[in-house]
Specification:
With 393 residues, this protein is of the alpha+beta class. The protein folds into 3 domains: 123 residues, Butyryl-Coa Dehydrogenase, subunit A, domain 1 (Orthogonal Bundle), CATH 1.10.540; 105 residues, Butyryl-CoA Dehydrogenase, subunit A, domain 2, CATH 2.40.110; 154 residues, Butyryl-CoA Dehydrogenase, subunit A, domain 3 (Up-down Bundle), CATH 1.20.140.10. It has 10 helices and 10 strands. It has a 4-stranded mixed β-sheet with strand order 1-4-5-8. It has a 4-stranded antiparallel β-sheet with strand order 2-3-7-6, with no helix packed on it. A hairpin with a 2-residue loop joins strand 2 and strand 3. Helix 1 runs parallel beside helix 3, helix 4 runs antiparallel to helix 6 and helix 7 packs antiparallel against helix 8. The N and C termini lie far apart (44 Å). The structure holds coenzyme a persulfide. The site of coenzyme a persulfide has 22 residues, from helix 6 and helix 10. Coenzyme a persulfide binds next to helix 6 and helix 10.
Length: 393
């Protein structure tokens, strides 16, 4: 099924975004990867997306163009359009794309020139797989409560503890990892490190199986040794860096949810026009028309919040205002993922028994969408963020 591109005419976008959306919408339906082994498929998607230049939107070009990016800076509207279009076709392709951006985002924001040169071009070409390690068994929504720690002796850091729910865990080449460097200082005592997968004392072998398979693992650090050059950003500046990275990628999660919702709506429309029932088609029933109307409005309202969040961030970068977009990104993520869940559920219901048959598109979308309401900040965390912002304004 070919994704529609009519939303690209909205004034949030410029010709660069329209070009990306149209090229990707033409390219992606031709791509087919066997996704029965999620880890293998994810690696294959990274290679394919890298070789076809799509991953170049996950990193900036850099001042001399040497960082591998397609655009001068990370562009939120490009990320949203790319994720929406990829997720329409394959949520795993979207996952593979998104993790390259999220996993390297903190290097883009705070890496030294040497760190950026060592990682970003290889992320952009798909030659290095990236991961973002923030959550812990006892610190998910309350990210500041993490306990994995790093202690410095001489020029060497030693990390102990564990991280869990780490996307790309076990297949990544490096993990941007956030750990406590001052236990007494709460969120002001966290520092980021770039941990290469082969670091001594790092074990990434504990795979976690989930309802919509994608690579996910628990990481264990047992006296994991890192040299001082792996520190990313300021000492104790890790929490803000993690939050700034999430500010960019939360709006793109909304883009992914939007792509899945658009696909479910397209499947529902197509099915309802073909399915014969009581001497007419399903689409001839007013009940069906009302549902399709509700689904379309849920999709469009999510789209407008998503594009607004992305536009707002890009505009802040362009004007140098660098306004925080935390609340806008949270609204987009919350609304798009919640609306997508409802749209997909309605599409599945419209398919009747076929909707729950393993292998139909709405059945897999029903499983695919669920984790988006949880990861990168659950809906309840987004409500908290928005509520705090409104009360402070
Ligand atoms: N950009 C820049 N700085 C930010 C920020 C942002 N988006 N969000 C918070 N900060 C800063 C605050 O300004 C504050 O700075 P000071 O210490 O200078 O005052 C500091 O970070 C702590 O902020 P806050 O008090 O709001 O932190 P909380 O511990 O209350 O946590 C939530 C806030 C719940 C919003 C945060 O823990 C969160 O986002 N949790 C979800 C984590 C998540 O998404 N996990 C999934 C991981 S990826 S799958």
């Amino acid at each position: 099924m070919v994704p529609s591109t009519s939303h690209l005419s909205l004034p949030f976008f410029d010709d660069v975004h329209r070009g990306i959306g149209q090229r990707l919408a033409a390219w992606i339906p031709q791509q087919h990867i066997d996704e029965s082994d999620d880890r293998l498929a994810c690696k294959e998607w990274v290679q394919l997306l890298g070789a076809s230049n799509w991953l170049r939107y996950c990193v900036p070009a850099g001042s001399d163009g040497k960082l591998g990016g397609a655009l001068p800076k990370l562009d939120s509207r490009a990320l949203v359009i790319l994720r929406e279009t990829l997720a329409f076709h394959s949520p795993l392709a979207d996952f593979a794309f998104a993790m390259q951006g999220l996993g390297s985002g903190a290097i883009t924001l705070a890496g030294t020139p040497a760190q950026q040169a060592a990682y970003l071009p290889l992320v952009a070409s798909g030659k290095k797989i990236a991961a973002f390690a923030l959550s812990e068994p006892d610190a998910g929504s309350d990210a500041g409560a993490m306990s994995t720690s790093a202690v410095k002796v001489g020029d060497e850091w030693t990390i102990n503890g564990s991280k869990t729910w780490i996307s790309n865990g076990g297949i990544a080449d490096f993990y941007v990892t956030f750990v406590k460097t001052d236990h007494a200082a709460g969120t002001r005592g966290i520092t980021a490190f770039i941990v290469d997968a082969n670091a001594q004392g790092l074990d990434t072998s504990e795979h976690i199986a989930v309802m919509a398979p994608h690579p996910l693992a628990t990481l264990k650090f047992a006296n994991c040794k890192l040299d001082a050059a792996t520190q990313l950003g300021a000492l104790h500046g890790g929490f803000k860096l993690a939050m700034q990275t999430l500010d960019i990628f939360r709006a793109s999660v909304a883009g992914a949810a939007l792509g899945m919702a658009r696909r479910a709506l397209a499947e529902a429309v197509s099915h309802s026009k073909q399915r014969k029932m009581f001497g007419q088609t399903l689409a001839d029933f007013q009940l069906t028309q009302a549902k399709i109307g509700e689904m379309a409005a849920l999709v469009d309202s999510a789209a407008l919040l998503t594009y607004r969040a992305a536009w707002f961030r890009d505009e802040g970068e362009r004007t140098g205002a660098n306004t925080r977009v935390t609340a806008e990104a949270a609204m987009a993520k919350m609304t798009a993922t919640e609306n997508a869940q409802r749209v997909i559920d309605m599409a599945l219901q419209m398919h009747g028994g076929l909707g729950v048959k393993v292998g139909t598109k709405v059945e897999s979308l029903y499983r695919d969408i669920r984790s988006l309401r949880i990861y990168e900040g659950a809906t309840e965390v987004q409500q908290l963020i928005i509520g705090k912002a409104v009360l402070q304004s």
